[in-house]
Write a structure and sequence with these properties.
Chain lengths: 564, 454, 386
Amino acid sequence: MLLALSLLALAPLLVPPCIARSQETYSESLRLTPLADGKVHSNLSFSMAGPWNDEQQVGKSATAQHHTHLPSALTSLLTHHRISSFHLTLSSGRWSPHWPTTSSPASGIELVAWLEPDEEEDELAEAKRWHEFTGGLGGLFCTGVTQGGNEASRPDWGYSYEGEGAEGETLRPYRLVLPRLSATCTESLTPFLSLLPCSSRAGLGALLNPHRLFDGEWTLLGVHFEQKGGMGEVRLEVGSVQDPVRRDRLAGGLGRRDFSLESLFDRQLTVACPVAETSTVKLVVPRNSVNAFEIQPSDGRVVEKEGELEIVKWETKQGSPTEPLNARISWPTENPFRYPHVSRLPTPPISTRRILLGRGQERGHIGIELINNGAEAAEVLWVEEWPWWVRGFVGSLTAEGASSSEDSQPSVLALDYTPPIPRRRPTTLQALLHLPPRSTSKFLLPYESSYLWYTEYPSDAHRGFEVPGALVILLNPASPSAEEIDVDPSHLLASRGAKLRLHTPSTLLSLPTPDFSMPYNVIILTSTVVALFFGSVCNKLVRAWWVVDLEAREEAEKKEDKKE
Amino acid sequence: MATKPTAPTAPLVDLPSRRIIVFSFWAILLLGLPFWWYTTTIERLALPKGQVSGTSYERCQLPGVSTLAEGEPVSDPSEFSDLSVPVATEQTLIKVAKTLLDLGSTAADSRVAKFAPRYKLVFSLLNQDSSTGAALLEWEIQALLNRHLRPLLSSLAPLHTFEIETQIQYFAPLSINLGKDDDGIIIQEDDLRAFVNSADWNLPTSVTLDPVLHFMLFVPSLENRPMRISTSRSKPSSNAFITPQRGGVVIFNPPSPSSADEPSSPLSLAADSFAPSFQLFEQQLRKLLGVPPPPRSARYGRTGALEGWQVDAMVRTRLAEATKESVDTLHAIVKLVDDIPNMRVGKEVQRGVYSALRELDQARAILPTSPSRALSHAASALSLASKAYYDPTMLALLYFPDEHKYAIYTPLFGPVAVPMVVALMKEWKEWKERRRRKKAAEGAPRDGEKDKVE
Amino acid sequence: MVQRSFGCASLLWLVALLALAVLLPSTHVSASSASTNNWAVLVCSSRFWFNYRHMANTLAMYRTVKRLGIPDSQIILMLADDVACNPRNPFAGTVYSNKDRKTDLYGEKIEVDYKGEEVNVETFLRLLSGQLARSSRFERRLMTDSRSNIFVYMTGHGGDEFLKFQDNEEISAFDIADAFGGMWAKGRYNEILFMVDTCQANTLYSKFYSPNIIATGSSAKDENSYSHHADNDIGVAVTDRYTHHVLTVLETINKTSQVTLQNLFDTFTHQIIGSNAGVRSDLFNRPLDETLLTDFFGGVSQVELSEPLGFREASGVKEEEEEVRGAQSSRRSEVLVKRIGREKKEPKGVKEGGGGLGRTALAGGVLIALQVGAVWVARSRCSRVV
């Protein structure tokens, strides 16, 4: 008994000295979706989480922040500017409406952030903090963000704060959109890779081959940060849509849509990331595929169900350096791949398109077209941000519809319009729209474009100016039990949730562009006018003309001569 | 005879109104000149040049420890009671006092980082290749910092504040060639210059412009252990080196895993294993911050909190450095503004210069009572002066050749000037002529009749 | 008599010896430049797809400079347009400066500090003078000090004393000269190597006035610079002759090379470059044949070993300094010995700087003249006396 007691007493010593385990976690995953038109959508997601805002003291003159997985380049920027949450997406290419998605990103560079509120700070200081944050983040990712000290657009209808905390209700987002047509390239991928714990040397980061990523139909680089329950989570994602059929044809084949990890990325998963908790490769099993297909490797895989989809999952750690995991799918009986008819491609619940009407460069109509493919009426949030030189006349906003049923017309249920302040604030339009079932609706408003100052024109002014795309959010249907209370439209997204988020691509708008030799013309014109008219006017006022009688004068002179 | 024309035969414009017209043209031109001048000049606010040139480093010279020549017997030890030097011998005292007086010499020490009131210290644990096994994936960094660096950092409170960041990297490849000998892997001393592979190691920079000092604990990969630096001299090697003004590196060879564990599993080491490395870091930090080393014969330790006289010496050195630099910067601002007439001097620059001068005055005033407060004033003077020096608005206008100026103004002012000058000259001639006639008329009033006809 | 003549002769001998001592080329080697860090500013100022070769030139310089040791944090790369991910590029994500397409210049690790619309005259001048907006990120600033050597490379379309930026504005030679002058006044550089590849490039550096600048351009006034060759698959010219030639020379050196600037400039011929490449060295205080390419292109950083724990340091500050200084001077004397040895090995006349030869000739001539004079005076005097 004594022995037992003494053992019990000594038991704690038998436990090895416990070392404070780092509480930060890292996990990565790759999701491959074969699309109905033969293309492949691959989405890599790297997620790092750890305790947030846990600065510790080292003596009275030093504070310390410790990180193992969370990238310090990003965390120092976030803590310095006190950011609650942000989403940065860089995307180039065009997301086809026939590819299934719940959320497509904005075309170009989009940054949405929520700043931690500070009572001692006024609006101007907060805007300055936002401006410095965009500069710092843009510099980190080599995006070439050139935003003057403008007021930001703050569309709170379209973006709801996903973090926690009471301030979440009152925090309004800051949004910056740079609608570049080609926003991603290797110089954005390099700092992106340096944020990953294993960078491009191990784990799924090794698949990030810029020569393949930027050779596709569509590329996305995304950085997201959220805080939940004292933990901060940084999630990096890389999305890419590639075309195995084109690659096969370039290599001399007839065009097969078979693909594997190696054929997509030209890389192998030879080294596993030692700090990744989970590192999985998922392949979405194609539904409605006419021909039979095979998914390999068959050992070590797990089949899961996700809603209506079936997903095959592998752990990358099961591979070895000599036989790396190479998930692949092939259609053995299909040679070549036949592009399906458009009517057989999946259609989304709603689709949208940007419309620009008018002639000449000074004025026109700008808006969107919404097609509701569903059998029920839909409520859609429409968020627009136009540069200050697009001056819309929101009083003339029109909603036209061509629907199969005669009784319902599209309508604007709520509207929030922030007019532009020239050179300081862009236009923000937020609207709640009602779309009748199976209809095509057009929402347009007339606009006038401004003349810019001579120095504000970019170098290739005749190419046009890019206008950001529209954001269209299909809201989940309101629960029938909800009472008919007037819900503030800015809370609709938070309460009902988004079923689908779409962006239209950026468009180019031509502005009246002057002849840049005008300053010299002005100088010459002014000088000519002055030369011609000033002298004449001055002389006319000052000089007098009178007639000199030459004969009389001669006579007078002769008289004088005679006298003398 | 032909019919005489009915045109006027004498000037219609009467004299006074013609004069008024000419002079009003000129008046408008002269009134407009100041407007033109004002709108085409560059804003150049006045800088207090007199004050700046009057402020020189000598005037800011600090009253150091009063005269103590070498060899002089120490008459009154109580003079130095406030230095808290445990005086073991006279020699120690003299050496200490010389350190305090040696304000200029440490300025030439190129290892010491430039003075800033706030430093960022980054401690990184770099694994060369954690996938080959036996890598260090974590460390008890907070405990290590508390044990080894807190005393030093706390005693430097009057001088600096520190922001510490720590990180772990799992893949930090080397770009130099490694040699091999019987004891393990060696690195030549010459290759150390390229050891820090900034291309592949993610060394963070600061969000603000505070200087960053990096302290890297490098853990070689399993096949490269043990790794050491081979020195050419007979000095024993400590497997550590500093890059002047930038930071320090310690190469840490973890103990080989015991036979019970798997050879490739990650290691977890207690904080004590890192103690020697962190003591080396502390030494390196002392060198980089310019801590004066204690005399050889001093009995107190070389690690841990600093002695009062060390902090005092550092305060004085940094005070001298900050003052000198701010004075130099102010002189340079004035010189730059004088040298480039095309440069705009805005309100921010003017305000910065005035504030910097004010801070320097405050530093000088408060020096006898509290050198560390004087240091903070000098530090803010330095930051204000350099902000003014690098102010984004102080940019010279682009080159605009004089020929362009003539080409623009001549076609405008030429056609304006010619008729006006000619009119003025005519007026003047007319006035002279009239005066002559008047005088002649006064002389011969009766003969004037005939002249009127002309 | 004879004594007096000897006195005159010996006086003249003395004068001759003194002259010799003064005029002979001193074997003193210009001390290795006092620079502690190297920076590079690489600017491509033209946009549009058909100026692919300018982007390729700049990127090739970037790769070379990185290979020779300058870290990314000390390179400022400004590209006015994006050709790698341009939809017109058949090889996405790549930039080649040779039609064999062996080396991808864009690679997988690149940091472009300024791109697109940000590359303009104002930003460039602000970068040089350090007057960027306060919120500008650390990596995009030129944080040089008075001991930095800077390599400035500019390429694009240019003309007589100007360089075109982005096809809608221009920077004049006076602006660049003033920027460098301001940098010198602020102590922002130790030495600058200015290289420019445009039409009439030599005129761009004609207005410099601050010291320690060595400049080289690809063509003289009223001359064009030509492209080297085109890649038919990409459809545009991929490199320029001058830059292609400079890169060929730089390919052969590594971090420890002893090749000098004079060696590089000696390889400029009209046949290779297609125009009269120029060099301006009057503002540079070291002779070109003693200035290594790695003084500008290599990454230099000093290190100092730490003593092990428990090792008693030398007491006092001064003694430590002397030790460090002693170490430095011993290292410098090692370098001196190496260099003098090398000079002696090289046969004269092949790669010797022109200055040295001239000086020797002058000294020899003076010596001979003095000798003859001494003999003549002695003879005439003595004969007269006699």
